[in-house]
Amino acid sequence: MKLRNTGNKQISIPMVGQNVKYSGITEDHSPHANPTNNIKKISLLPLIFLIFYEVSGGPFGIEDSVRAAGPFLALMGFLVFAIIWSVPEALITAEMGTMFPEDGGYVIWVSSALGPYWGFQQGWMKWLSGVIDNALYPVLFLDYLKSGLPILADGYPRIVAIVALTVALTYMNFRGTTIVGWVAVFLGLFSVLPFVIMGFVAVPKIEPSRWLVMDLHVVNWNLYLNTLFWNLNYWDSISTLAGEVDNPKKTLPKALLYALIFVVCGYFFPLLVGTGAVSLDRELWKDGYFSDIAMVVGGVWLSWWVQAGAGLSNMGMFVTEMSSDSFQLLGMAERGMIPEFFAKRSRYGTPYIGILFSASGVILLSQLTFQEIVAAENFLYCFGMILEFIAFVRLRMKYPAVSRPYKIPVGTIGAVLMCVPPTILICVVLALSTFKVMGLSVFAIVIGLVLQPFLKYVEKKRWAKFSTSADLPDLHNAYETKESLVF
Protein backbone atom coordinates (compact mmCIF):
# COMPACT_ATOMS: atom_id res chain seq x y z
CA MET A 1 0.00 0.00 0.00
CA LYS A 2 1.15 3.49 -0.83
CA LEU A 3 0.12 6.37 1.41
CA ARG A 4 0.24 10.07 0.60
CA ASN A 5 0.18 12.48 3.51
CA THR A 6 -2.37 15.25 2.95
CA GLY A 7 -2.23 17.46 5.99
CA ASN A 8 -4.17 15.86 8.83
CA LYS A 9 -5.37 12.86 6.87
CA GLN A 10 -3.97 10.07 4.73
CA ILE A 11 -5.43 8.87 1.47
CA SER A 12 -5.10 5.17 0.86
CA ILE A 13 -4.77 3.52 -2.53
CA PRO A 14 -5.15 -0.22 -1.93
CA MET A 15 -3.70 -2.23 -4.80
CA VAL A 16 -4.15 -5.97 -5.08
CA GLY A 17 -3.14 -7.16 -8.53
CA GLN A 18 -5.57 -5.44 -10.88
CA ASN A 19 -8.28 -4.95 -8.26
CA VAL A 20 -7.60 -1.25 -7.84
CA LYS A 21 -9.80 0.82 -5.58
CA TYR A 22 -9.22 4.52 -5.10
CA SER A 23 -10.49 5.26 -1.61
CA GLY A 24 -9.57 8.91 -1.47
CA ILE A 25 -13.08 9.90 -2.48
CA THR A 26 -16.10 8.53 -0.66
CA GLU A 27 -19.61 9.60 0.00
CA ASP A 28 -18.65 10.48 3.57
CA HIS A 29 -15.53 12.40 2.69
CA SER A 30 -15.95 15.61 0.75
CA PRO A 31 -12.90 17.43 -0.58
CA HIS A 32 -14.44 20.61 0.75
CA ALA A 33 -15.51 19.40 4.16
CA ASN A 34 -13.43 21.95 6.03
CA PRO A 35 -14.40 25.24 4.35
CA THR A 36 -18.02 24.36 3.69
CA ASN A 37 -19.05 21.99 6.46
CA ASN A 38 -21.96 24.27 7.38
CA ILE A 39 -23.16 24.70 3.78
CA LYS A 40 -26.12 22.55 2.76
CA LYS A 41 -25.44 20.26 -0.18
CA ILE A 42 -27.56 19.97 -3.33
CA SER A 43 -30.14 17.16 -3.21
CA LEU A 44 -31.65 15.14 -6.07
CA LEU A 45 -34.62 17.31 -7.14
CA PRO A 46 -32.72 20.62 -7.31
CA LEU A 47 -29.88 18.81 -9.08
CA ILE A 48 -32.27 17.56 -11.79
CA PHE A 49 -33.43 21.10 -12.46
CA LEU A 50 -29.89 22.47 -12.34
CA ILE A 51 -28.96 19.99 -15.10
CA PHE A 52 -32.17 20.90 -16.93
CA TYR A 53 -31.11 24.54 -16.93
CA GLU A 54 -27.48 23.79 -17.74
CA VAL A 55 -28.65 22.03 -20.90
CA SER A 56 -32.04 23.39 -21.82
CA GLY A 57 -34.34 25.56 -19.74
CA GLY A 58 -37.26 24.73 -22.01
CA PRO A 59 -38.01 25.12 -25.72
CA PHE A 60 -37.04 28.80 -25.86
CA GLY A 61 -34.44 29.17 -28.61
CA ILE A 62 -35.32 26.04 -30.62
CA GLU A 63 -37.48 27.97 -33.12
CA ASP A 64 -34.53 28.41 -35.50
CA SER A 65 -34.48 24.64 -36.11
CA VAL A 66 -37.83 24.91 -37.94
CA ARG A 67 -36.74 28.02 -39.86
CA ALA A 68 -33.55 26.25 -40.92
CA ALA A 69 -34.93 22.84 -41.91
CA GLY A 70 -38.71 22.63 -41.60
CA PRO A 71 -40.93 20.67 -39.16
CA PHE A 72 -39.93 17.08 -39.97
CA LEU A 73 -36.17 17.56 -39.69
CA ALA A 74 -36.60 19.73 -36.60
CA LEU A 75 -38.65 17.05 -34.83
CA MET A 76 -36.38 14.19 -35.91
CA GLY A 77 -33.29 16.23 -35.12
CA PHE A 78 -34.15 16.57 -31.45
CA LEU A 79 -34.66 12.81 -31.17
CA VAL A 80 -31.70 11.60 -33.23
CA PHE A 81 -29.32 14.23 -31.90
CA ALA A 82 -30.25 13.30 -28.32
CA ILE A 83 -29.30 9.68 -29.03
CA ILE A 84 -25.98 10.30 -30.76
CA TRP A 85 -24.88 13.25 -28.61
CA SER A 86 -26.79 13.81 -25.37
CA VAL A 87 -26.89 10.17 -24.23
CA PRO A 88 -23.12 9.55 -24.62
CA GLU A 89 -22.24 12.88 -23.01
CA ALA A 90 -24.59 12.27 -20.07
CA LEU A 91 -23.23 8.74 -19.57
CA ILE A 92 -19.62 9.93 -19.64
CA THR A 93 -20.51 12.69 -17.18
CA ALA A 94 -22.11 10.15 -14.84
CA GLU A 95 -19.05 7.88 -14.90
CA MET A 96 -16.36 10.55 -14.71
CA GLY A 97 -18.31 12.83 -12.38
CA THR A 98 -18.72 10.06 -9.80
CA MET A 99 -15.12 8.97 -10.27
CA PHE A 100 -13.92 12.53 -9.52
CA PRO A 101 -16.66 14.12 -7.35
CA GLU A 102 -15.00 17.47 -6.80
CA ASP A 103 -15.42 21.02 -8.07
CA GLY A 104 -13.58 21.43 -11.35
CA GLY A 105 -15.29 18.53 -13.09
CA TYR A 106 -14.02 17.92 -16.61
CA VAL A 107 -10.84 19.90 -15.88
CA ILE A 108 -9.91 17.24 -13.34
CA TRP A 109 -10.76 14.42 -15.77
CA VAL A 110 -8.49 15.77 -18.48
CA SER A 111 -5.71 16.64 -16.02
CA SER A 112 -5.72 13.11 -14.64
CA ALA A 113 -5.61 11.54 -18.11
CA LEU A 114 -3.44 13.97 -20.10
CA GLY A 115 -1.62 16.09 -17.53
CA PRO A 116 -2.10 19.60 -16.07
CA TYR A 117 -1.24 21.48 -19.29
CA TRP A 118 -4.15 19.97 -21.21
CA GLY A 119 -6.30 20.17 -18.11
CA PHE A 120 -5.77 23.92 -18.15
CA GLN A 121 -6.62 24.11 -21.85
CA GLN A 122 -9.83 22.22 -21.14
CA GLY A 123 -10.65 24.63 -18.34
CA TRP A 124 -9.92 27.69 -20.47
CA MET A 125 -11.99 26.57 -23.46
CA LYS A 126 -14.94 25.32 -21.42
CA TRP A 127 -14.99 28.38 -19.14
CA LEU A 128 -14.85 30.74 -22.12
CA SER A 129 -17.51 28.68 -23.89
CA GLY A 130 -19.67 28.85 -20.78
CA VAL A 131 -19.32 32.62 -20.44
CA ILE A 132 -20.17 33.07 -24.13
CA ASP A 133 -23.15 30.77 -23.65
CA ASN A 134 -24.29 32.78 -20.65
CA ALA A 135 -24.23 35.96 -22.73
CA LEU A 136 -27.13 34.43 -24.70
CA TYR A 137 -29.64 34.55 -21.90
CA PRO A 138 -30.01 38.31 -21.46
CA VAL A 139 -30.35 38.46 -25.28
CA LEU A 140 -33.05 35.76 -25.33
CA PHE A 141 -34.80 37.30 -22.33
CA LEU A 142 -35.11 40.67 -24.04
CA ASP A 143 -36.01 39.10 -27.41
CA TYR A 144 -39.10 37.56 -25.80
CA LEU A 145 -40.03 40.77 -23.96
CA LYS A 146 -39.51 43.21 -26.83
CA SER A 147 -42.81 42.23 -28.50
CA GLY A 148 -44.61 43.53 -25.41
CA LEU A 149 -42.03 46.22 -24.54
CA PRO A 150 -40.56 47.55 -27.82
CA ILE A 151 -38.30 49.96 -25.93
CA LEU A 152 -36.08 46.96 -25.04
CA ALA A 153 -35.38 46.12 -28.68
CA ASP A 154 -32.18 48.18 -28.94
CA GLY A 155 -30.29 51.25 -27.76
CA TYR A 156 -29.50 52.35 -24.21
CA PRO A 157 -32.64 50.84 -22.61
CA ARG A 158 -31.53 47.41 -23.84
CA ILE A 159 -27.97 47.90 -22.52
CA VAL A 160 -29.24 49.09 -19.13
CA ALA A 161 -31.64 46.13 -18.95
CA ILE A 162 -28.81 43.67 -19.70
CA VAL A 163 -26.53 45.15 -17.01
CA ALA A 164 -29.33 45.29 -14.41
CA LEU A 165 -30.38 41.71 -15.12
CA THR A 166 -26.79 40.48 -14.93
CA VAL A 167 -26.20 42.21 -11.59
CA ALA A 168 -29.41 40.85 -10.04
CA LEU A 169 -28.77 37.26 -11.13
CA THR A 170 -25.11 37.44 -10.14
CA TYR A 171 -26.19 38.34 -6.60
CA MET A 172 -28.45 35.28 -6.56
CA ASN A 173 -25.40 33.12 -7.38
CA PHE A 174 -23.49 34.79 -4.57
CA ARG A 175 -26.14 33.68 -2.06
CA GLY A 176 -25.48 29.96 -2.57
CA THR A 177 -25.98 26.87 -4.74
CA THR A 178 -28.90 25.50 -2.73
CA ILE A 179 -30.83 28.72 -3.32
CA VAL A 180 -29.96 28.52 -7.02
CA GLY A 181 -31.11 24.88 -7.07
CA TRP A 182 -34.54 25.48 -5.53
CA VAL A 183 -35.02 28.63 -7.60
CA ALA A 184 -34.32 26.43 -10.65
CA VAL A 185 -37.09 24.03 -9.55
CA PHE A 186 -39.65 26.85 -9.30
CA LEU A 187 -38.57 28.51 -12.55
CA GLY A 188 -38.53 25.20 -14.40
CA LEU A 189 -42.08 24.28 -13.43
CA PHE A 190 -43.37 27.76 -14.21
CA SER A 191 -41.65 27.81 -17.63
CA VAL A 192 -42.73 24.34 -18.77
CA LEU A 193 -46.34 24.43 -17.57
CA PRO A 194 -47.68 26.82 -20.28
CA PHE A 195 -46.50 24.43 -23.00
CA VAL A 196 -48.37 21.56 -21.34
CA ILE A 197 -51.51 23.71 -21.30
CA MET A 198 -50.87 24.82 -24.88
CA GLY A 199 -50.70 21.17 -25.94
CA PHE A 200 -54.16 20.40 -24.56
CA VAL A 201 -55.70 23.60 -25.92
CA ALA A 202 -54.20 23.03 -29.38
CA VAL A 203 -55.53 19.48 -29.91
CA PRO A 204 -58.49 20.55 -32.15
CA LYS A 205 -56.16 22.66 -34.32
CA ILE A 206 -53.43 20.05 -34.91
CA GLU A 207 -53.00 18.64 -38.41
CA PRO A 208 -50.47 15.75 -38.35
CA SER A 209 -49.62 16.23 -42.05
CA ARG A 210 -47.80 19.45 -41.12
CA TRP A 211 -45.22 17.41 -39.18
CA LEU A 212 -44.05 15.68 -42.37
CA VAL A 213 -43.13 18.82 -44.32
CA MET A 214 -39.52 18.59 -45.55
CA ASP A 215 -37.49 20.07 -48.41
CA LEU A 216 -33.82 19.12 -48.42
CA HIS A 217 -33.07 21.71 -51.12
CA VAL A 218 -33.73 24.64 -48.77
CA VAL A 219 -32.05 23.51 -45.56
CA ASN A 220 -29.65 25.84 -43.77
CA TRP A 221 -27.45 23.10 -42.34
CA ASN A 222 -25.18 25.43 -40.40
CA LEU A 223 -28.08 27.05 -38.53
CA TYR A 224 -29.86 23.72 -38.12
CA LEU A 225 -26.90 21.85 -36.59
CA ASN A 226 -25.81 24.78 -34.43
CA THR A 227 -29.33 25.11 -33.02
CA LEU A 228 -29.56 21.39 -32.22
CA PHE A 229 -26.04 21.32 -30.82
CA TRP A 230 -26.55 24.32 -28.57
CA ASN A 231 -29.86 23.04 -27.21
CA LEU A 232 -28.66 19.50 -26.45
CA ASN A 233 -25.16 19.94 -25.05
CA TYR A 234 -23.57 21.02 -21.75
CA TRP A 235 -24.46 17.82 -19.87
CA ASP A 236 -20.93 17.83 -18.49
CA SER A 237 -21.32 21.30 -16.94
CA ILE A 238 -22.92 19.90 -13.80
CA SER A 239 -19.66 18.06 -13.06
CA THR A 240 -18.05 21.31 -11.94
CA LEU A 241 -20.55 21.35 -9.04
CA ALA A 242 -19.95 17.71 -8.02
CA GLY A 243 -18.21 18.81 -4.83
CA GLU A 244 -21.39 20.63 -3.77
CA VAL A 245 -23.73 17.64 -4.32
CA ASP A 246 -25.07 15.50 -1.50
CA ASN A 247 -23.79 11.93 -2.03
CA PRO A 248 -22.73 12.56 -5.65
CA LYS A 249 -21.90 8.92 -6.40
CA LYS A 250 -25.57 7.99 -6.20
CA THR A 251 -27.31 11.31 -6.77
CA LEU A 252 -25.49 12.42 -9.95
CA PRO A 253 -26.30 9.42 -12.22
CA LYS A 254 -29.98 9.47 -11.19
CA ALA A 255 -30.25 13.21 -11.76
CA LEU A 256 -28.67 12.91 -15.22
CA LEU A 257 -31.12 10.18 -16.24
CA TYR A 258 -34.22 12.07 -15.11
CA ALA A 259 -32.96 15.33 -16.58
CA LEU A 260 -32.27 13.67 -19.95
CA ILE A 261 -35.88 12.47 -20.19
CA PHE A 262 -37.17 15.87 -19.05
CA VAL A 263 -35.07 17.80 -21.57
CA VAL A 264 -35.95 15.70 -24.62
CA CYS A 265 -39.68 15.77 -23.81
CA GLY A 266 -39.43 19.50 -23.10
CA TYR A 267 -38.23 20.08 -26.67
CA PHE A 268 -40.18 17.51 -28.65
CA PHE A 269 -43.67 18.16 -27.24
CA PRO A 270 -43.74 21.97 -27.84
CA LEU A 271 -42.35 21.47 -31.36
CA LEU A 272 -45.02 18.85 -32.01
CA VAL A 273 -47.73 21.25 -30.84
CA GLY A 274 -46.34 24.36 -32.55
CA THR A 275 -45.68 22.84 -35.97
CA GLY A 276 -48.96 20.90 -35.96
CA ALA A 277 -51.30 23.64 -34.76
CA VAL A 278 -50.41 26.57 -37.05
CA SER A 279 -49.82 26.94 -40.77
CA LEU A 280 -46.15 26.78 -41.68
CA ASP A 281 -44.25 29.96 -42.46
CA ARG A 282 -40.62 29.14 -41.84
CA GLU A 283 -39.51 32.77 -41.82
CA LEU A 284 -41.63 33.40 -38.74
CA TRP A 285 -39.86 30.71 -36.72
CA LYS A 286 -37.38 32.92 -34.88
CA ASP A 287 -36.58 33.59 -31.22
CA GLY A 288 -39.83 34.37 -29.43
CA TYR A 289 -42.18 32.75 -31.95
CA PHE A 290 -43.67 30.37 -29.39
CA SER A 291 -45.39 33.33 -27.75
CA ASP A 292 -47.07 34.10 -31.11
CA ILE A 293 -48.19 30.47 -31.40
CA ALA A 294 -49.60 30.67 -27.87
CA MET A 295 -51.56 33.76 -28.92
CA VAL A 296 -53.10 31.87 -31.87
CA VAL A 297 -53.83 28.74 -29.86
CA GLY A 298 -54.89 30.07 -26.47
CA GLY A 299 -55.14 33.83 -26.55
CA VAL A 300 -53.40 36.76 -24.86
CA TRP A 301 -53.17 35.18 -21.41
CA LEU A 302 -51.26 32.14 -22.70
CA SER A 303 -49.00 34.31 -24.85
CA TRP A 304 -48.06 36.42 -21.85
CA TRP A 305 -47.44 33.29 -19.78
CA VAL A 306 -45.08 31.93 -22.44
CA GLN A 307 -43.26 35.27 -22.52
CA ALA A 308 -43.00 35.32 -18.73
CA GLY A 309 -41.87 31.69 -18.77
CA ALA A 310 -39.21 32.54 -21.35
CA GLY A 311 -37.94 35.39 -19.22
CA LEU A 312 -37.78 33.29 -16.07
CA SER A 313 -36.27 30.37 -17.98
CA ASN A 314 -33.43 32.54 -19.19
CA MET A 315 -32.91 33.70 -15.63
CA GLY A 316 -32.65 30.06 -14.57
CA MET A 317 -30.17 29.21 -17.32
CA PHE A 318 -28.10 32.25 -16.42
CA VAL A 319 -27.75 31.45 -12.72
CA THR A 320 -27.02 27.75 -13.27
CA GLU A 321 -24.44 28.42 -15.99
CA MET A 322 -22.74 31.03 -13.82
CA SER A 323 -22.65 28.58 -10.91
CA SER A 324 -20.96 26.02 -13.14
CA ASP A 325 -18.44 28.52 -14.53
CA SER A 326 -17.52 30.00 -11.16
CA PHE A 327 -17.14 26.65 -9.40
CA GLN A 328 -14.99 25.46 -12.30
CA LEU A 329 -12.62 28.37 -11.58
CA LEU A 330 -12.68 27.44 -7.90
CA GLY A 331 -11.79 23.84 -8.73
CA MET A 332 -8.93 24.96 -10.98
CA ALA A 333 -7.61 27.26 -8.23
CA GLU A 334 -7.72 24.43 -5.69
CA ARG A 335 -5.62 22.38 -8.09
CA GLY A 336 -3.05 25.19 -8.43
CA MET A 337 -3.83 25.90 -12.10
CA ILE A 338 -4.86 29.53 -11.56
CA PRO A 339 -4.16 32.01 -8.72
CA GLU A 340 -5.35 31.06 -5.26
CA PHE A 341 -7.74 33.99 -4.87
CA PHE A 342 -10.18 32.27 -7.28
CA ALA A 343 -10.70 29.62 -4.56
CA LYS A 344 -11.92 32.13 -1.98
CA ARG A 345 -15.48 31.53 -0.83
CA SER A 346 -18.12 33.84 0.56
CA ARG A 347 -19.89 33.07 3.85
CA TYR A 348 -22.49 31.29 1.71
CA GLY A 349 -19.84 28.91 0.33
CA THR A 350 -19.83 30.48 -3.14
CA PRO A 351 -16.70 31.43 -5.12
CA TYR A 352 -17.35 35.17 -5.28
CA ILE A 353 -14.21 36.04 -7.26
CA GLY A 354 -15.13 33.49 -9.92
CA ILE A 355 -18.71 34.81 -9.98
CA LEU A 356 -17.55 38.40 -10.54
CA PHE A 357 -15.05 37.30 -13.18
CA SER A 358 -17.70 35.33 -15.08
CA ALA A 359 -20.26 38.13 -14.82
CA SER A 360 -17.82 40.63 -16.33
CA GLY A 361 -17.32 38.38 -19.36
CA VAL A 362 -21.07 38.04 -19.83
CA ILE A 363 -21.60 41.82 -19.94
CA LEU A 364 -18.80 42.26 -22.48
CA LEU A 365 -20.15 39.58 -24.81
CA SER A 366 -23.88 40.21 -24.53
CA GLN A 367 -23.88 42.76 -27.37
CA LEU A 368 -23.32 40.03 -29.97
CA THR A 369 -26.24 38.59 -31.93
CA PHE A 370 -27.90 35.31 -30.95
CA GLN A 371 -26.52 33.39 -33.96
CA GLU A 372 -22.96 34.73 -33.48
CA ILE A 373 -22.94 33.75 -29.82
CA VAL A 374 -24.26 30.23 -30.52
CA ALA A 375 -21.73 29.57 -33.28
CA ALA A 376 -18.76 30.87 -31.26
CA GLU A 377 -19.53 28.93 -28.09
CA ASN A 378 -20.26 25.75 -30.08
CA PHE A 379 -16.83 25.96 -31.76
CA LEU A 380 -14.97 26.22 -28.45
CA TYR A 381 -17.21 23.64 -26.82
CA CYS A 382 -16.39 21.13 -29.57
CA PHE A 383 -12.67 21.27 -28.84
CA GLY A 384 -13.34 20.82 -25.14
CA MET A 385 -15.50 17.76 -25.81
CA ILE A 386 -12.77 16.17 -27.93
CA LEU A 387 -10.41 16.42 -24.93
CA GLU A 388 -13.10 14.88 -22.71
CA PHE A 389 -13.60 11.92 -25.05
CA ILE A 390 -9.84 11.35 -25.18
CA ALA A 391 -9.60 11.53 -21.37
CA PHE A 392 -12.53 9.13 -20.94
CA VAL A 393 -11.05 6.51 -23.28
CA ARG A 394 -7.50 6.95 -21.99
CA LEU A 395 -8.53 6.43 -18.35
CA ARG A 396 -10.50 3.33 -19.39
CA MET A 397 -7.42 1.94 -21.18
CA LYS A 398 -4.76 2.96 -18.67
CA TYR A 399 -6.62 2.34 -15.42
CA PRO A 400 -9.38 -0.18 -16.23
CA ALA A 401 -9.66 -1.53 -12.68
CA VAL A 402 -9.80 1.74 -10.75
CA SER A 403 -13.00 2.03 -8.73
CA ARG A 404 -15.81 3.70 -10.66
CA PRO A 405 -18.97 4.20 -8.53
CA TYR A 406 -20.98 4.38 -11.76
CA LYS A 407 -19.56 2.62 -14.80
CA ILE A 408 -21.04 2.59 -18.30
CA PRO A 409 -21.65 -1.12 -19.03
CA VAL A 410 -19.30 -1.31 -22.00
CA GLY A 411 -15.68 -2.38 -22.31
CA THR A 412 -12.80 -0.39 -23.73
CA ILE A 413 -13.82 -1.05 -27.33
CA GLY A 414 -17.39 -0.08 -26.51
CA ALA A 415 -16.14 3.14 -24.90
CA VAL A 416 -14.25 4.02 -28.08
CA LEU A 417 -17.21 3.20 -30.34
CA MET A 418 -19.55 5.25 -28.14
CA CYS A 419 -17.40 8.33 -28.77
CA VAL A 420 -17.29 7.91 -32.57
CA PRO A 421 -20.76 9.32 -33.55
CA PRO A 422 -20.46 12.47 -31.39
CA THR A 423 -16.90 13.02 -32.63
CA ILE A 424 -18.10 12.85 -36.26
CA LEU A 425 -20.83 15.32 -35.34
CA ILE A 426 -18.22 17.64 -33.81
CA CYS A 427 -16.21 17.56 -37.04
CA VAL A 428 -19.33 18.46 -39.06
CA VAL A 429 -20.18 21.38 -36.77
CA LEU A 430 -16.60 22.68 -36.96
CA ALA A 431 -16.50 22.32 -40.74
CA LEU A 432 -19.70 24.34 -41.16
CA SER A 433 -18.46 27.26 -39.05
CA THR A 434 -18.03 30.63 -40.75
CA PHE A 435 -14.53 32.02 -41.20
CA LYS A 436 -15.34 34.83 -38.75
CA VAL A 437 -16.37 32.43 -36.00
CA MET A 438 -13.53 30.06 -36.81
CA GLY A 439 -10.94 32.87 -36.71
CA LEU A 440 -12.16 34.28 -33.39
CA SER A 441 -12.37 30.82 -31.82
CA VAL A 442 -8.91 29.75 -32.95
CA PHE A 443 -7.55 33.05 -31.61
CA ALA A 444 -9.17 32.27 -28.24
CA ILE A 445 -7.62 28.78 -28.26
CA VAL A 446 -4.17 30.22 -28.99
CA ILE A 447 -4.57 32.55 -26.02
CA GLY A 448 -5.10 29.50 -23.81
CA LEU A 449 -2.02 27.75 -25.20
CA VAL A 450 0.08 30.78 -24.23
CA LEU A 451 -1.75 31.65 -21.01
CA GLN A 452 -0.83 28.45 -19.16
CA PRO A 453 2.97 28.92 -19.51
CA PHE A 454 2.50 32.59 -18.62
CA LEU A 455 0.71 31.67 -15.39
CA LYS A 456 3.53 29.24 -14.57
CA TYR A 457 5.95 32.13 -15.03
CA VAL A 458 3.80 34.30 -12.76
CA GLU A 459 3.89 31.54 -10.14
CA LYS A 460 7.65 31.19 -10.47
CA LYS A 461 8.15 34.94 -10.04
CA ARG A 462 5.69 34.91 -7.11
CA TRP A 463 3.63 37.72 -8.61
CA ALA A 464 0.53 35.82 -7.46
CA LYS A 465 0.00 33.00 -5.01
CA PHE A 466 -0.79 29.52 -6.32
CA SER A 467 -1.53 26.54 -4.07
CA THR A 468 -3.00 23.05 -4.24
CA SER A 469 -5.56 22.15 -1.59
CA ALA A 470 -4.26 19.53 0.85
CA ASP A 471 -7.77 18.06 1.04
CA LEU A 472 -7.65 16.95 -2.59
CA PRO A 473 -6.07 13.61 -3.53
CA ASP A 474 -3.16 13.47 -5.97
CA LEU A 475 -5.16 11.55 -8.53
CA HIS A 476 -2.51 11.36 -11.22
CA ASN A 477 0.21 9.93 -8.98
CA ALA A 478 -2.28 7.69 -7.23
CA TYR A 479 -2.93 5.86 -10.49
CA GLU A 480 0.69 5.24 -11.40
CA THR A 481 0.45 1.63 -10.26
CA LYS A 482 3.48 0.22 -12.09
CA GLU A 483 6.23 2.79 -11.80
CA SER A 484 5.69 4.26 -8.34
CA LEU A 485 3.70 1.72 -6.32
CA VAL A 486 5.25 0.76 -3.00
CA PHE A 487 4.04 -2.45 -1.36
TrEMBL record:
<dbReference type="GO" id="GO:0015293">
    <property type="term" value="F:symporter activity"/>
</dbReference>
<keyword id="KW-1133">Transmembrane helix</keyword>
<dbReference type="InterPro" id="IPR002293">
    <property type="entry name" value="AA/rel_permease1"/>
</dbReference>
<feature type="transmembrane region" description="Helical">
    <location>
        <begin position="378"/>
        <end position="396"/>
    </location>
</feature>
<feature type="transmembrane region" description="Helical">
    <location>
        <begin position="437"/>
        <end position="455"/>
    </location>
</feature>
<keyword id="KW-0813">Transport</keyword>
<feature type="transmembrane region" description="Helical">
    <location>
        <begin position="179"/>
        <end position="203"/>
    </location>
</feature>
<feature type="transmembrane region" description="Helical">
    <location>
        <begin position="68"/>
        <end position="92"/>
    </location>
</feature>
<feature type="transmembrane region" description="Helical">
    <location>
        <begin position="44"/>
        <end position="62"/>
    </location>
</feature>
<feature type="transmembrane region" description="Helical">
    <location>
        <begin position="155"/>
        <end position="172"/>
    </location>
</feature>
<dbReference type="InterPro" id="IPR044566">
    <property type="entry name" value="RMV1-like"/>
</dbReference>
<dbReference type="Pfam" id="PF13520">
    <property type="entry name" value="AA_permease_2"/>
</dbReference>
<feature type="transmembrane region" description="Helical">
    <location>
        <begin position="408"/>
        <end position="431"/>
    </location>
</feature>
<keyword id="KW-0472">Membrane</keyword>
<dbReference type="GO" id="GO:0015203">
    <property type="term" value="F:polyamine transmembrane transporter activity"/>
</dbReference>
<keyword id="KW-0769">Symport</keyword>
<feature type="transmembrane region" description="Helical">
    <location>
        <begin position="104"/>
        <end position="120"/>
    </location>
</feature>
<protein>
    <submittedName>
        <fullName>Polyamine transporter PUT1</fullName>
    </submittedName>
</protein>
<feature type="transmembrane region" description="Helical">
    <location>
        <begin position="293"/>
        <end position="312"/>
    </location>
</feature>
<keyword id="KW-0812">Transmembrane</keyword>
<feature type="transmembrane region" description="Helical">
    <location>
        <begin position="348"/>
        <end position="366"/>
    </location>
</feature>
<comment type="similarity">
    <text>Belongs to the amino acid-polyamine-organocation (APC) superfamily. Polyamine:cation symporter (PHS) (TC 2.A.3.12) family.</text>
</comment>
<dbReference type="GO" id="GO:0005886">
    <property type="term" value="C:plasma membrane"/>
</dbReference>
<feature type="transmembrane region" description="Helical">
    <location>
        <begin position="223"/>
        <end position="243"/>
    </location>
</feature>
<keyword id="KW-1003">Cell membrane</keyword>
<feature type="transmembrane region" description="Helical">
    <location>
        <begin position="255"/>
        <end position="273"/>
    </location>
</feature>
